[in-house]
Amino acid sequence: MAEFDVESLFRSLDTDRANVVWKWKLLEELGQAGLRADDPRVERAVSSTVDSDTPFEPGQPEWLDFEQFREVVREPVIWRALQGQLSMRPDEFAEFTQGVERIYAELLDERSGEVAQYIPTLRNADPERFGIAVCTGDGQVFQIGDATVGFSVQSTSKPFSYAMALEQLGAADVHRWVGQEQSGGTFNDPRLSLDAAGKPQNPMINAGAMATLALVEPDLDVSERFAKVEQTWARMMGAPPGFDHRTFLAERDTGHGNRGLANLMAAKDMLNVDPKDRDAPQKAAEFYFAVCSLEVDAQRLAAAGATLANGGVAPYSGERVFSQETAGRVLSVMGHSGMYNDSGQFAGQVGLPAKSGVSGNVMLVVPEKRLAVVTFSPRLDEAGNSVRGVEVCKRLVNEFGLHPYQSLGAEREVARLAFGGVTRPGGGRAGQHNAAAPATASVTRAGELQL
Hints:
Blueprint: H1 3-13, E1 21-22, H2 23-32, H3 40-53, E2 63-64, H4 66-72, H5 76-82, H6 90-107, H7 120-123, E3 131-136, E4 141-145, E5 151-152, H8 158-169, H9 171-174, H10 206-213, H11 222-237, E6 242-243, H12 245-254, H13 256-267, H14 280-292, E7 294-296, H15 298-309, H16 324-337, H17 343-349, E8 354-357, E9 361-366, E10 371-376, H18 387-400, H19 410-418, H20 437-447
Helix pairs in contact: 3-4, 6-18, 8-10, 8-16, 10-13, 10-14, 13-14, 19-20
C-alpha cells in the first residue's frame, strides 16, 4: 500500500483535524462496510495496536495516531474495506441489508406451516423464531431477529459432508459410492433413494449423506472422525459448532428407516464399511445422526455458506478449506437437489443453490456475488422446507434480480432500444415499440444491481 494513500485515508477519517483517528470512527466506517467490531481480524488489528503503548484512562475515547493507524490498515481486510474493495461496496451492502430488513418485517406475520414432529426437540421448537443472517466471502455480515439462536443443522450438513469426501478422495472415487441425480422422491424414501445397484441417488438425501460420511476418514476411530468433521466446520465458520445431545439421542432412537437404508447399501457393497462388522451399517447411520446434530446458528451457518460462495475459502481467516472444484461440485448438486422434494420448483423460482434442514434453516448461496443468506424459522411446508425461509429466498431474488436466468438477453434488448435502427423479427423498428420499453428497462435495473 502506498504511503500517500495511507496518509490520505488517515486525513479523511481525522474529522476533528486533531492528527488522530478515533477508534469509534474507524469502527463505524468498517461497520458501514459490513465488518463488525468483533470480527477476529478487526479485533486483533485494532486492539493489539491501541493497547500496545497508549496510556488511556478508563472511560476515555481511544484514538490512533498516524503510525498506529498505519499498523492497523496493514490488515488486508481493513485496508480493502476502507477502500470500498470488499465483495460488496458500502452503499451496495446497505441497500442489500435494507432489503433484508424489509423482507423480515413483511414476513413476521407469516405463520403457515408446522414444526417437524418426528422427534421431541424439533416438535417442541418455538415456532415464532425467525432470524436472517448474511455473510460475504470477505466476512461482511448482517443479521436480524433470531440469527444467534442455536439449532441442529440437520440436512444442511449434507453439502459439507459431501465436500469433505470430495476433498479426501476426489470426484471419481466419491461417485463410485453415490450418484449425482435427483431421486424423484422425499429425502428418506426407501424406494427411490437407491438405484438398482444399491447406490444412493445423490449426496443430498439421507442415504447419500450416510454414504459420503462413510468416506470421511474411514480408517480413524469414530471419535477422531467426528473431531475432523467439527474441525472443518470450525475452519469455515471461524468458531466451533456446538452439539445438540438431545437431538442426537432422539435421532438415534427413532432412525430405523435410515438404519434400514444403511443396511440395504451394505448388502449391495455400496457402503464403505468393514464387511466383517455386522454392526457397521448401524454405526454409519449413527455417525450421520451425530453430524446432523451439530449445533449452529444462522450467523455461523452463513459463514459456512460463504465459504462455498467464495470458492472454498473461509471468510474470516482466508484459509482454503475446499478446492474450487469441490465448491463448484457441491453447489451444482445443491442447485438441483438441495430443497427436498421441492428442489425443481425452487430451482425454477429462485435459480440458486440452496440447502434446507428440518430444524427450520435454509442456506442460500449466491456464487456470483460471493455471499450466503441463512434463515431460521421452524415452521415447515409439506416438503420439509421452512415456509418463511423459502419466501425470503424468493423475495430476495426478485427484489435484487439475482435469478441467473430470468434476465437473460436484457442487455441486448436495451442495446436494441438505444440503437433504434435495429429491425425486429416481426417487422418494424426497435425504437417504435415504446410500449415494451418500460418493462425491459425495469428488468434491466433489477439485473444490473452490482452487489
